[in-house]
Amino acid sequence: MKNRLEVAKELLSENGFISIIIGIDGVNHLKLLADEVFDVSSDNKKFVGQITWRKTDNQPNIGDYANVIDFILIYRKNSDAKLKRLPLSNKAQKEYSYEDENGKYRRSNILDLTRGKYNYDIQTPEGTILSGPWMINKDEFNRLVSVDGIHWPSKGKQIPYGKMYLKDAIENGQITSDFWDGSYGTNQRSADEIKELFGDRVFTFAKPEKLIQNLISISSSKGDIVLDYHLGSGTTAAVAHKMNRQYIGIEQMDYIETVSVERLKKVIAGEQGGVSKDVNWSGGGSFVYAELKNDAQDFKNAISEATTTEELLELFEMAKKSSFLSYRIDPKKLKQTDFELLSLAEQKQILSEIIDNNNLYVNYSDIDDSDYGISAEDKKLNHDFYGKGE
Q: Which of 117, 180, 218, 315 has the fewest CB atoms found within 10 Å of its own CB?
């Protein structure tokens, strides 16, 4: 985990953020590790905060207690980087229950016995004198009166309130909080999203699109690059595509072909699940899918797929002559008779252990080696990717 965080930090733009979703079992260890990587001890502002996310719609009733939350740790490379505001939620908009000729508004306190620091007399419409303490000075109070910016209750002591208009709140958005409830998406809804896309739950523990939408909203702008190096079911890439972000997704498991890539194809075709309606998604765009060029990885795959000792013996002989044999292994000491005495599982384990894992894939520096037979098209793609094209 540490080396991945270090690389992720290096890749972050100066105003970039990293969000890490984790459960209760690992959050404390991760916090210590990430604090070290982002050097929080010398600048505690690089740790933005920890969001508690309610990940379930319903509380299970099994065991001693119900685990219904995950955590999102947010860090930034530059302590001056600012999170963006979220759109005003439907729940928040319902709080604007008053209305005048300027539109819907909600009341805001201007009389506060604890926080108020201005004392002056005002007269209510019914003639009552109130003295404060007020949270705004007298000039500001008089200005609000002149523009009909004061709400006077029709009953009670007629304590005045300021007016906060819905149109302004929608324009400005709302800052994020350290608790996200089920309205930010849940695991049940993410499972439904996967089933809607593929007709079955082909992936477990996918993240809901709404959750990722909010994380992308507070940490990036249109056109920015979003990186997810645990792509999984492809939720991050799918939402980034719908939100007009560039994106890079990395995954080492084979389901990237059957789940992640296929999901992005459906996004381009205009699928209407997840956040599609929220962002008025109608399809379009493109993406590039590429795999690392295999070297020893093909050999390891053959080991895994072998079902007989005869197949493994062929691989054993191939390994002794290969370039990806570990430098710690002397091929002259590898004896077929000893190998044959092992069980099938032990034979597979031995073959896997004698391979140098540094040679699982072809290095860019070997791109012109004719033994690998790399096409001119692939060479051009790699030169362009590494910024060394003509």
A: 117
